[in-house]
Amino acid sequence: MTSTNPEVRTAQAKIVIPEQFLMVTVLGTGDSLLKVIETAYPDLDIHARGNRVTVTGDRAEVRLVQRLFDEMMLVLRTGQPLTEDSVERSIAMLRKAEQDPGSAEGSTSPSSVFTMNILSNRGRSIRPKTLNQQTYVDAIDRHTIVFGIGPAGTGKTYLAMAKAVQALQAKQVTRIILTRPAVEAGERLGFLPGTLYDKIDPYLRPLYDALHDMIDPDSIPRLMAAGTIEVAPLAYMRGRTLNDAFIILDEAQNTSAEQMKMFLTRLGFNSKIVVTGDVTQIDLPSGTKSGLKVVQEILEDVEDIHFSRLTSQDVVRHKLVGKIVDAYGHYDAKQQAQHDGAARAPRTPRRNES
Predict the structure, then answer these.
(1) Each residue of 213-272: pLDDT tens digit?
(2) Rounded to an integer, what distance in angstroms lies between the CA atom of residue 300 and that of residue 339?
């Protein structure tokens, strides 16, 4: 399938695409996937002819492209399509694996991430798209309480809800409970129009929207009426013991330390809790410390509790979202450094001070 010359730094590999795959499915429409590979490896000479792809250049990079095509073939054999995004993420994972073979990236293949199916509904599959997302999903299976912490667009809540629906369908739990803190972000609830449910609906709407992606929309009202699915503000959790349930607390950065403790101690028998949040988007009043920040200091080393931390590299929205997250992170770090520097600067006494 491939040939390389070990005597020199430059190597050549000839990759044969199995006849069962059309070249357009491997290289993309208009060679779009091939262009992604060429952009990632600009120093390589890559040519496609017939059912062969010839790669010439630095031996280490040639080896990575060989592995990349092997992973692409594994994905295609499962019936999953290849996309520019999945190829880009595969390249990133393989590079990390090459740099640190002992890391999680080094022991996990891109194909195992992209072919892991959590839930299917109306012909659409929900699966992790990055290694960190797969680690997060695996942690939900292995631990009773899992914290998913990361920026917007990393799939924290969406994947947790998919696991909740999967657990319900497998009869591992008898109900799903979804909750959020109804933080007064800009408008006070009392001044919003309508009933209490009308007032809190905007805070819970993202959870309803995700549910509609995973469950037949016509069955959702019936499941909610029966109590099989409950969507409610965090305040409604006080005083309850939640047994046989998959419980998700979303936007947890907007809980106080007291609210977080109250929520976690609702855990009953045969239940699982997933807490999601982004500590860079806290809407709490000034002076109130985020319960999501505090809980990391308190529970980090407690057995059967896991913290999954996602980054801008795990953003699965538009590519710009990841860049925006990074830009804000750099800005915040710069502002903090300037603040710390000003605080440490020696105070120059005034002339009239003794």
Answers:
(1) 899 888 988 999 999 999 888 988 999 999 999 999 999 999 999 999 999 999 999 999
(2) 28
Q: Count other Cβ atoms within 10 Å, centred on residue 197.
A: 10
Distance CA 215, CA 120 (A): 9
In angstroms, the Cα distances linking 110 to 83, 169, 199, 351 are 13, 28, 44, 67
d(CA 139, CA 132): 10
**Residues with Cβ < 8 Å from 40, sequence gap 6 or more?**
88, 91
DSSP H helices, the chain, are: 23-27, 32-40, 59-77, 84-99, 104-107, 110-114, 131-142, 156-169, 196-214, 220-225, 257-264, 291-299, 319-344
Order across the sheet with 52-58: list the strands.
10-16, 52-58, 45-49
Please choose, from the candidates 262, 121, 244, the residue with its C-alpha nearest in 3D space to the C-alpha of residue 177.
244
Residue spans of the chain under pLDDT 50: 1-6, 184-188, 353-354
Tell me phi and psi for residue 293, to 5 degrees.
-75, -45
Q: How far is CA 304 from CA 134, 140, 301, in A?
A: 18, 10, 9
One-letter amino acid identity for 210? Answer: A
